[in-house]
Amino acid sequence: MEHTGTEYIGTVINGVVVLENGTSLPEGTRVRVAALETEPQAESLGQRLLKFAGMAKELPSDLAENHDHYLHGLPKK
To answer: What DSSP letter does each residue of 28-67 carry, written as one string?
Structure first.
């Protein structure tokens, strides 16, 4: 099958192809979709920090509530 139409570029958002520049095609238009190679997305800060979750041992049981006490010497709550 040979390519006979115009080429559009878009992004899949929630399972729907959204074309760039607000382009829309008439209902019923036949299309061919080919995924383009993309750069791997960088890990978010949360994803990078999650690697350390659960590594700290022997912390006070009230650390979440009184972190300002343990970090800065403020009175406990």
So the answer is: T------PPP-PPPPPPHHHHHHTTTT---S--TTTTTTH
Structural domain boundaries in the chain = 10-36+44-72
pLDDT digits (tens, 9 = 90+) for 6-28: 889 898 899 999 999 889 899 99
Would you state the pLDDT for residue 68?
A: 94
Q: What are phi and psi of 49, to 5 degrees?
A: -75, -30
Q: Nearest Cα to 31, choosing from 44, 17, 42, 20?
A: 17
Provide the whole-model pTM. Answer: 0.41
Assign 50 to helix, strand or coil: helix
